[in-house]
Design goal:
Length: 338
Amino acid sequence: MVPQRRAPDRAATDWLADLRRAYGLKVDAVVRMKTVTGLVDTRGRRWVWKRSAGRSQEPRLRAMAAVSACLAPFGIPFAGPVPNRAGVYLTRLGGGETGHLQPWLPGRHADYTQRQERLSAVATLAAMHHAARGAWVCADPALYRGTLYQKLWFKRRLLETLWPQAEACVPALRGLHEEVRRAAELALTAVLPAGSSAGNRPWERMTFCHRDVAPHNLLWQGDGPLAVIDFDLAGVDDPLVDVMQVSNHAIFLGAPLRGHFAELVDVYARVHPLSPTGEQALWRVLGFPDLLARAVAEWARTGADGRDARPTWRLVHAARRQAEHLKAWSEAVRGLPV
């Protein structure tokens, strides 16, 4: 239970008064959190006020509200924006603060090291992809912001560029380069927009994706779908991006690797069926060396000069875990047409 404190006696402060004017909310308690403010109104309803971070423009918020409405009939809890009394989503309060209101969904952060929660996360995302695919909301230009291919291409190039320096610093990388290069190339080929084979056309898979499915952005509520929050990076993309992210977060956090990839593919494809070549593409994307790409980028940005040892320690951990990941992935795809 999140600790709450009563709203101050002078509840008619400018900020609370502005919220009341904008949304008709009578705030009973305020909870200050790291990046948002939790609100409990006098009717016991829970809300989150999220300040604008530059991306939360009105067309995008309106598109997210449409996505929320699209997912509601499928029972997928989604913290979409709430319109104010004027019927718009981006709200300006006194003092120049701009942001939007959204429901404060119950639950705790998902634990991807736990098999049930990890697979429930994949099933929830698959249901979201399936519900939104082909829906009119996916035609909204406000939801188009780069693709999985662009992300993987950039990370592959980063690895190639920084590998010599990183290997000189972390001996654990020696002997891993060829395996990393091959896995990255296979993944890139699977999501390449041009020249794709019949049945594996990434643009035909495009649907609404979260694109930032760290454990703190999915809330475990017990049974049923997980609640989806924090859509800052969400947009229309190749849905394989979300499955890859769940897998990589789980591996980094220490989830057991035995049977890991086959379970993810099976659960995802049962909820959101893929063509045979689409399933092959998912297998390839699950092998992308994302753990190492992230760690190398952080090391180059903050630890390459040796003044801070922590990025180097994280790179050592990522190298070991990436080697385990690639070994388990290679064994899992043995005999498959990947």
